[in-house]
């Protein structure tokens, strides 16, 4: 075995941590002392990550349908060694759809989390060693779930690997969802209806006040989230004006944003009325809110699920602006570096059981029937990746709901001078497939970002790609203006062809070749497989080549957001 000085230099910090760690680390925050647990990752030399789980960031349980409030001081040290319950979740019927959604998204591979209204807690994962300087960068995670379900307390979102390998602090937070987080009651003031967003902001405020106690720097916060978490991040970005000082300095949006949609948001007042009627409430203004507040939470959950009631946020122009796309192009949003992206097969998890492309298109694009023939022609059976109707439907969902809005979002953001990076996740692994053949489906990148994928059957590529992705996310969080490791969107010299081959690499980043792509086009990082590359890094690819079908959908987006919200081509 060869053992040189470089090997020794890498081992010494971990060894020192193993020899000097505190098995019961403590931190003193504004509410009192919290006691965590020192943990070790597999193959580590010793405990090197301090976990503080289940810290209240607000008074919990909160009063139902009320904004969060400051937590009372602890009367004794708080035992922060276990996750707290998820907020009450909602999974829509029919039963088969509900079971499928739970299997894929509700702690896949593990036990479903306990649910409770006593849920306003967060988790902190911090390296055990001294941070040095002013403190470490902080990554603040917001989970997805269509704003109807989700929880921070599952193994997929364990931030220990981030803390261990990338020397950053990770905070994961709960927030209220569905009717408990976005009640849409006409009896509530508009400013008190987006309770889930208020929870997120309250947790961010907690980070500003307390993260220094864990070795973090409150001026180095990056917010990141997936799906509805990405929606939430976009809501935060667009609700802070250009010259404001938000409680974060960078943002990452994974498979989710709020600005570009294929359909306008719908009111949830009918869902609220359905709920009050099902509960037998009096039906009079001033009494329904009291009635639902007093109802049993389990019964409220049952009615919401059986009736497939959806509760969406309202545009209060405080936590959620009315036209984020137009506001983005006006430039009056947070001017901080951003990283955004989507997965190559997002739609497969939403198209299960659907095979009739014609029927799907007629239903989905009923408001724009003139576009249907062109859309159908763009996804012919027998073309690459499309062997049947299910594949075609999945590809349409991927494009219209995720990939094309991500492209619009990235280009619009870059056009107003905000440093913007974009990725495209294109890899799948057997040990992250909740069901067979889902591919690079919605949320499948998360275990690779957190390095929490199941260890059995791990491949060399999966390990390498996960390491690369987590490193890219952390590099961005530590130095947002430096980026994750590839070109920002829209950079380069127009008219200059960038030559290269699939097997050439620059600093571990692969460059594909195309005879008609200019240097300015080489600004999209494909993470996973592309062309002849099957690697663990990024393949740089022309945006326009990847997004060639997106022009089909621009009339749909423009109908929703207006011409003022569509970036120049």
UniProtKB/TrEMBL annotation:
Give the UniProt family note: Belongs to the type-B carboxylesterase/lipase family.
Per UniProt, residues of the Carboxylesterase type B domain are 25-499
Respond yes or no to whether keyword Hydrolase is given for this record.
yes
- Which molecular-function annotations from GO does this UniProt entry contain? carboxylic ester hydrolase activity
What Pfam families does the entry give? Answer: COesterase
Protein name (database record): Carboxylic ester hydrolase
Q: Which UniProt keywords apply?
A: Hydrolase, Signal
State its Enzyme Commission number(s): 3.1.1.-
Organism, by scientific name, is: Didymella glomerata
User: Looking at the record's lineage, which domain of life comes first?
Assistant: Eukaryota
